[in-house]
# Entry
Amino acid sequence: MKAEAARVQRGEIGRPTWQVMGNRLRAHIVPLLGDLPAQSIATSDVQRLIDHLGEQGFTSTTIAQYLVLLRKVVMHGVHTGVLREAPPFPKVKVRSQPRGSFSVSEYRTIVATARSLRGHSHPVLDTLNSGERFWIARELLVMPEELPWLIRWMVNTFVRPSDIKLMKHKHIEVVRGKHVYLRMNLPETKRHSQPIVSLRPAVRVYECLLAHRGEHGHGGAEDYIFMPHLKNREHALAVLNFFFHWVLEKAGLEKGPLGQSRTLYCLRHTAITLRLLYGQGIDMLTLARNARTSVNMVERFYASVLSGEMNVGLLQSRRSRVS
# Structure
């Protein structure tokens, strides 16, 4: 972990990646293999980890990520002279499953549901005894005004949930010219640092949100855009996820078309998928760069849910004859 921390310092990997490594080591790898003498690690021990993670319900993608981390640990042993060589690692066949994006009608439903719940107390309050604690403070267990704005914001800006916890007003610029949009100079995520350009509806969302923040004293450049009163930003994102799940439950949209559990990340998936469907002539490279991802990721996880019939008009279109 010290060697990986040095990579964070050099800018080779992000700090969140380093934190995930630590979490995974502590959660499963060390408890299962920590007492094993380093020199005796064998392929059967790696298989034991695979079987253990499978029993815990992890997907093949997550198991493969754990194997990458275990291989890093073993290779660190080789590089430092503790081990002579690394044992062969079993292969895990990874099956990419796209997240459950929302259709246009589903998107409208969750926005309407979030609006209808604003100011309502979460049902968990009815189950708590006097003085009993919950991981969200009692005064926060009320659907916040900002959740409908958050939903619309994510679908019109392509941002990740991890961006939400870091965004401040100083990162946002309203651009008005031939096109009206937000230019978002957000902190670097997943080694991407270029600005993100929003769709036009995001401007209206931001202006409403900014006016609301100004009324409550949270519209300064250094104030966070969402949940600005919560200084613990991991907790702020967890609270937003909690309320979004309540909206999905109320709307009956917790699962995607392939049975996937839906989360805030599905709103980003929706943003990209809807652009592929309805963006006139948009190319994947432009879309990928603006969403701070790669063309490969767009093809594997976003475009994979599209069918030819969804864009039958483009398939049947003909170039006009040159006179």
Notes: Strands lie at 172-176, 180-184, 196-197.
